[in-house]
Specification:
Length: about 375
């Protein structure tokens, strides 16, 4: 690019130029026809903002609290794998970027830096993303390591009993990457062709029998708050509350699992209404602008998570790029709040947005 990036899409193009095609497609791609991947972004465009004027917005306060932890803005770093494919310091650089932005990073279980290395990289609040393995003893050991290293919550991914068909990885013959957190716990050698190694490994190790009854078991192995990542329906949101979880993350895995699941922003309100304020609801999927964050907050999310945007920044400019992406999103949200007449997060209400459903209702 001939000029410095000014938004996430600019960083995406820089990442495309900086990375080998195999790695760029691994980060940017989705499952099968990538319908959900595209719709995650497009669905935000169908929602309009209803700004209020003549409100004192000389001071904007974007800060909020997630599970009792104060952050500078309702933007967390989503769990994404293999940051060392983007930048040699990997998740260490991402952790420092999140700390500089005064927000929370959720470390992926399949990170290329260990739980312990990331914990010692800088002083910050961090959550840990967990996959439940067939070897429950290994799962328990990983949770104990995270708790011992000061992680403040466990984010359990529940939409991956099988790994989705990511056809770009198959075509590129994507090779397996080191899974630092599993070293010494299980064999990470994968006897299959490049391009399907990750699916083969997941099928051999991840517990496809995981069900609602196992939430009680998860409770028994940790005192940390437990959030479920991958909820898309009111039925599962209700079950999650009944199971006693501490939070819900509305997520379709960034369009990387089951294609043709709905965009997360379009089911957010359904989940929020089912939860009835009993636990916090967060959202990921398709967040590329401050206006996206504003819309999610107006529809009931307590915060959003962004994964690919941070990876694009990391790929293009390392730690500085990841930090810049987070600051860009914060600046865009601040501008959106000011121009919408919302001096603080609590001032953002359902009346500040209009969805396609609202438009249809108005026509009846």
């Amino acid at each position: 690019m001939s000029s410095e990036p000014v938004n996430v899409n600019d960083f995406k193009e820089l990442a495309r130029s900086a990375l080998p095609k195999m790695y760029y497609d691994f980060y940017a791609g989705g499952a099968e026809d990538e319908h959900t991947l595209r719709e995650n972004i497009r669905a935000f465009h169908s929602i309009t903002i209803r700004p209020r004027v003549l409100v004192d917005v000389s001071q904007i306060d974007m800060s909020t609290t997630i599970l009792g932890h104060r952050i500078s803005a309702p933007i967390l770093v989503a769990p994404t794998s293999a940051h060392m494919l983007a930048f040699h310091e990997g998740e260490l650089a991402t952790a420092r970027a999140a700390a500089a932005a005064q927000t929370i990073m959720v470390l992926s279980y399949s990170s290329t830096r260990s739980i312990e290395e990331v914990a010692s990289s800088c002083d910050a609040v961090r959550f840990f993303q967990l996959y439940v393995f067939k070897r429950r003893d290994i799962t328990a050991l990983i949770v104990q390591r995270a708790e011992r290293c000061g992680y403040k919550a466990i984010v359990v991914t529940v939409d991956t009993p099988w790994l989705g068909r990511r056809e770009a990885d198959m075509k590129n013959k994507m090779v397996a990457y080191p899974k630092k957190n599993l070293e010494g716990l299980m064999s990470v050698e994968i006897n299959s062709e490049p391009g399907v190694q990750l699916r083969t490994f997941a099928k051999a190790t991840v517990d496809a029998s995981l069900s609602w009854k196992d939430i009680e078991w998860l409770r028994s192995i940790t005192s940390l708050p437990i959030l479920l990542k991958g909820i898309l329906t009111r039925e599962d949101a209700t079950k999650a509350v009944e199971a006693g979880v501490d939070g819900i993350l509305v997520s379709n895995h960034g369009g990387r699992q089951l294609d043709f699941t709905p965009p997360t922003i379009l089911v957010l309100e359904e989940v929020v209404q089912a939860v009835k304020g009993k636990v916090p609801v967060l959202l990921d999927g398709g967040v590329r602008r401050g206006t996206d964050i504003f819309k999610a907050l107006a529809l009931g999310a307590q915060a959003v998570l962004t994964g690919r945007a941070v990876l694009f920044g990391l790929s293009a400019k390392g730690e500085e790029g990841a930090r810049t992406v987070l600051e860009m999103l914060k600046n865009e949200l601040e501008t959106t709040m000011a121009l919408s007449g919302c001096p603080s997060i609590r001032d953002i209400t359902r009346n500040h947005v209009r969805t396609q459903y609202d438009k249809l209702q108005a026509m009846l």
